[in-house]
Design a protein that fits this description.
Strand content: 15-25%
CATH superfamily: NAD(P)-binding Rossmann-like Domain
Helix content: 40-55%
Low-confidence stretches: none
Order of helices and strands: EHEHEHEHEHHEEEHHE
Mean pLDDT: 93
Number of domains: 1
Distance between the termini: 43 Å
CATH architecture: 3-Layer(aba) Sandwich
Radius of gyration: 18 Å
Number of helices: 8
CATH topology: Rossmann fold
Structural class: alpha/beta
Strand order of the largest sheet: 3-2-1-4-5-6-9
Largest sheet: 7 strands, parallel
CATH class: Alpha Beta
């Protein structure tokens, strides 16, 4: 019997080509899971999958935008067709597009809710037939398999954040989705939890003195980064005195994927170095 805690498990990790998502994919794979890596950019997704394979793990890529209507079905099908099942779903993909409310367009509002809330909803909806059929077959064989869903939120969703009405609302919605699905899928032996991140150092939150850093989302340049002085002030409000790393963020997700958390469901775990908003 394998000593790896996630051996024989198949995991979907959206937004896992870079940053926190990449670290989640690497950590789950190191624990024995076969991982379907996703990113908006094909080369980035394939690179993460290749890195996992080179380290002795199992991974394949499923590139594309989680907001595309057909993506969820393709994502789930990739897991089933490649590895024969589905046991872990990590809804991580997302970005921020900030503005004060009087300057926020409908497009800003809708795009952020689409990527952070509608996309996880669609992925879980697409996963249900696969999970339901698997559970029925397992029970017929006298087996019980605990599956895991971890939705990624933020302290902006638990406490709000000025300039992020769209993001805060979407992440608060993720909490509601998590709690509803924990009650709905308990009958399938699926635990559904949420990790709310505080300040984690990624390309979205890195120090940018010039204010000209951006990411490309569907051909649109979205500004990212935090003024270095503001970043320093923010870190002083954190009891541990610093921002977290992507690997530390991945660790919080991992805790909710291993067998030791099999009786924890419907919870929001804040990973913020002691800062809760």
């Amino acid at each position: 019997m394998s000593a790896l805690p996630l051996a024989d498990r198949v995991a979907l990790v959206s937004g896992s080509g870079r940053g926190i998502g990449r670290e989640i994919a690497l950590k789950l794979a190191a624990a024995g899971a076969s991982v379907v890596v996703n990113d908006l950019d094909t080369d980035v997704a394939e690179q993460t999958a290749a890195d996992i394979t080179a380290a002795g793990g199992a991974a394949t890529s499923c590139a594309g935008s989680v907001t595309d209507p057909e993506f969820a079905a393709r994502f789930v099908a990739t897991a089933v067709d490649t590895y024969g099942g589905l046991h872990i779903v990590i809804n991580n993909a997302g970005y921020t597009w900030d503005n004060v409310i009087q300057k926020m367009s409908d497009e800003q509002w809708e795009d952020i809710l689409d990527v952070h809330l509608k996309a996880p909803f669609r992925i879980l909806r697409a996963a249900q037939p696969v999970i339901g059929a698997a559970v029925k077959a397992e029970r017929a064989e006298g087996r019980q398999v605990t599956r895991k869903v971890v939705n990624i939120s933020s302290i902006a969703g638990t406490g709000g954040n000025a300039g992020q009405a769209n993001y805060s609302s979407a992440k608060a919605g993720v909490t509601g989705l998590t709690k509803a699905m924990a009650k709905e899928w308990g009958r399938y032996d699926v635990t559904v939890n949420c990790v709310a991140f505080g300040l984690i150092r990624t390309r979205l939150t890195g120090a940018t003195a010039g204010g000209d850093a951006s990411i490309d989302i569907a051909g649109r340049q979205i500004k990212v980064g935090v003024n270095p002085d503001l970043l320093e002030q923010l870190e002083k409000t954190i009891p541990l005195g610093r921002a977290g790393t992507p690997a530390e963020a991945a660790g919080a997700v991992y805790l909710l994927c291993i067998p030791e958390s099999d009786y924890i469901s419907g919870q929001v775990l804040v990973c913020g170095g002691g800062f809760t908003g």
